[in-house]
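Quick board copy: two proteins, each given as sequence then tokens.
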Amino acid sequence: MASRAGTVAQPQDLVDLTALLDAYYDVSPDLSDPGQRVAFGTSGHRGSSLKASFNEPHILAITQAIVEYRAGQGITGPLYMAKDTHGLSEPAQNSALEVLAANGVHVLIDARHGYTPTPALSHAILTHNRNAAPGMPQADGIVVTPSHNPPGDGGFKYNPPHGGPADTDATGWIANRANELLENGLRGVKRIPVADALAAGTTGKFDFLSSYVDDLPSVLDLNAIREAGVRIGADPMGGASVDYWGEIGERHHLNLTVVNPTVDPQWAFMTLDWDEKIRMDCSSPSAMASLINRMSDGAKFDVATGNDADADRHGIVTPDGGLMNPNHYLAVAIDYLYRHRTGWNPQSVIGKTLVSSSIIDRVAESLGRKLVEVPVGFKWFVPGLLSGEGAFGGEESAGASFNKMDGSVWTTDKDGILLALLASEITAVTGKSPSQLYKGLTDQFGDPVYARIDAAATREQKAALGKLSPSDVTATELAGETITAKLTEAPGNGAAIGGLKVVTENAWFAARPSGTEDVYKIYAESFKGAEHLKQVQAEAKALVDGVIS
């Protein structure tokens, strides 16, 4: 860990906002550099104007491509648009509005001139489409956010009518078309000045906050929280949930304190992450140091929570356990929900990513529920959440959502506000903190040790890792145990995982290439302790290097 991790950012750590915004408008990408082209990852196109990877030409081209994509798909309803608090988010939203209005797209932006969390946008899309008469136009949306990324980054994500992240067919088409438009000097992009776009008859307003906050009793037992008097400390971490938390407390009469209502596009109040960067990662002890310290210094909260910049991730801090590991909280949430949501389909399955903890597998078995293990990416949970057949979907990176009390869909994108409030419901109903409940699960199922490390790899080696087949792995043992599975496809849906997962009775590892760096990521877990985990990690690296070299 870097020496200043967990300490408050200093002036030299802060992004130069003037340079950032000037570069957004003044810098054009060099399309011969792959890093400056449009590329959609699991959460949209991300980059920085200072690196010529998130500039006005990118946004104009992506938006025109989305206009053409939705036309080709017959999507003619309103397009809901959300933005977070990153410095590049408002300029990017304005650029997008110029294109959308010029193309006659009906756009709905925040009625309060504020910020909109990703889950509130997903909720708005789904609510519109559920209430629309059969055959009526369906809505979709755009979220302008790079999630928990540093202040100098921007992000742009498309959510189709199912309300969740677009699949690779959609994002591949959009990215290809956007790059074509860039290569043609933006010929083919329709655009009008932003003032005209905001005044256009096709540009309207929508109260995202009220739609979301007023519907929370359909998905959470807020009465239990209120009656138990659970004391909640909510830290928006300078993100889009800033106005939502105060309204949640006020409208639902909860004992809730917004511990830091500051919005600052430089995030000067943040504590530095593990690598001395400002990063709004609510699952990181370093980034969450202020809230953790507040709890350890005697703050009178039963539950404290944090959210990243677009509030699609959650961090849970308890008085007795500090910041919970995301895997630990997922296990507790699953165990609680499937025991207490009597309105859910009794056959509904549990969804997790293949790099999430195996204690979830053991919890699922104890509940008598089928576990569906999918590749990394929340998009894989969308069909189950929509149908109610998969009432919960969660990722190891502190992203999850679950269905309403009656089993119908709440959001099909990650909802950090929902999961944060669930911690208070769990405390109210069980009389125990989520960390105490996790201790009970480990007493029953074992106490796994989990970690992720990076290993160096060339672009060619990363490509080889992404194309492996199980037969490429000849090893029969891992860290002294017989290998029981070699996976290059997710067992839950048969989709390619873009890497390799190897499983034994008490351990596993998964290796996946990074999309942005010359490394591959090794996720590993052992139920036999920290030393065994180190052995798993070392043998995993040797195994993977031997196969891809």
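And the next:
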Amino acid sequence: MKTTRLIIALLSLLVSSVCAFTPAAAPRNDSNGAVQRAERIKSNKAYYNGTGYGITLDEAKRTAVEDLCGKISRSVNIASSSLDTQDSESFTSQSYISTFVTLTNTETLVVSDEEGKFEVLIYVEKTQVESDMAQRAESVKTLARLGRDMEKRLEIASALKYFNWAYCLARAYHQPVMLDIDGMNHEAKAWLNSHINNIFTTLKIDLEGVETRPDNELDPYLVNLSVTFMGQPVSDLNFSYMNNGVTVRDQHAKNGHASLALEQLPKESIELTVEYKYAHEGAQYSGELATIYASRHPATFRKANLSIPCKGATPEKFQLKEARLTKEEKAEKARNELLAPTAVAPERKRIDTRPVEDSQGHIIVDAMQKVSAAIDSRRYSSVSELFTPEGFARFSKMMNSGKVRTAGSSHEWKVEMGGGYILGKSIPVTIKYNGGHTVREEIVFRFNSQNKIESVAYALTKKAEDDIFRQNGWDLAARYAILHFMEDYQTAYALKDSLYIKKIYSDDAVIIHGKKNPAAGKRRNADGSGFFVTAPYTYSLQTKDQFLENLRKDFDKKKYIKLTFEENEILEQAGIYQNIFWIEIKQYYQSDVYKDVGFLALMIDMREEDPLIKVRTWAPDKVPLPELMKRFTIE
């Protein structure tokens, strides 16, 4: 928001929001002047106004806000019958507008401040209300467009997030918002509602296999699933599931695979709930969404609760059954597909990688099979001869980061040449951290010319890797160098390897951290002489030592850290500076105490044998990469 925000929501929010304003208050003992000013404002048709009374100033402000909302509600004439309803939800026009409207540039006039007899007038220009409403409409369009982009990239977690946020805002708008979908206009609420439900019914979940883990007394079964959308593996999907009556939250499907740790195999169905609300992120994204989620009346989608029929109580007989839709469900699915069909982007060809001769390929696959068996037996030392000393140290650190098990009864082994290594791809694993959180990763092995494993890392998502290999204008070696660097970067956070992170940052690195400013916008000066503007983001500049010290504190207090990268853009520095690259990548940061999403930008100097980060920035929203390149010079 570009102006000071007054959030009109529940009573607790009303008090805190209104109190955040600097009131244009009349001086004490000047009640006559204040009364006259209030009357002029009330008679001015250019303003909406609300009057409130109370024995405290906060109570008077609260009732003034309620009065203002009521007048705005009646003015825009929202009829209850025109509002969208879903499930059992229904709203009256009065409660709907007063719960979900966010206004900016409101003014507060204290008409009377006698102890126990407070009177307050809150007013706002009608053009400002119209501007706020129009801005919300634009937000709906922007979020819907972002959702479409993410859906086409098979980033279903992000697609659902943006679509749901757009839907929540569209429901809180007093007029229809029209979306341009493939050249056709659609009313936003109807299209988004159908499209989100269509995504849930289009997701397909199949059984890859069941593994028994006798050493795990709590959850001895691991059910491995494939998750596809329109026939292609999803890049990401967040969900929770039921484990013998207990909800297991914060689970993640990656590259079309997910694993469920279970106390016992379900006899009738696996119960999953796909995440789509992202309330915490939504509250950070905008004040309107913060208000909607705080009201406890956000949009809900029952179809996010997936019941996957199954049968067989033993791993050998356990299987999923095809879900059967009722006639009503089939009819609703057909309506949703007709109004808002799902879509994925056509596959873009990535450049060819270098093959490995069969004889050498067999050696690499044999080594990975032995490592896979060692992971499950936890006899890591039995394969130490397959590694260099440095490689085995890294592998051991990975294995000791949590309870690590291979995921899936069969693996698709791939061997290719790249970046000075022979690459073995990959062993899928699940990692259960202290506290019970489980993540799924794929371990990539890098073999040297003597067929020894020199290093290991967690793989990027398939979409992030594909983006690197579809970049234009530079050679295969540069692409592999960037791939290995980003794999090592996210692995270092997972392993809390502060020494590695220290190594990859230049001593004079520019490190900038951005944070959304909740007080952003235009505010009136305390003396009423005019306005001042507060920037939408605040940024802190850190030295390398400060950054590392803060990082070490983070590593100490968090049980686990998981980075997931998507949506990367890479540019090589123009001019004489060859082998200096900028990469901006969407980063999902998740831990047991904190999670966020934003855009990480790195300037990576690859002119030396060991790449160095010269510039690191993080911001909640994407900053055009050419702007960053212009802003920072190279030495």
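Board note added afterward: Confidence is low (pLDDT under 50) at residues 1-31, 77-101, 528-533.
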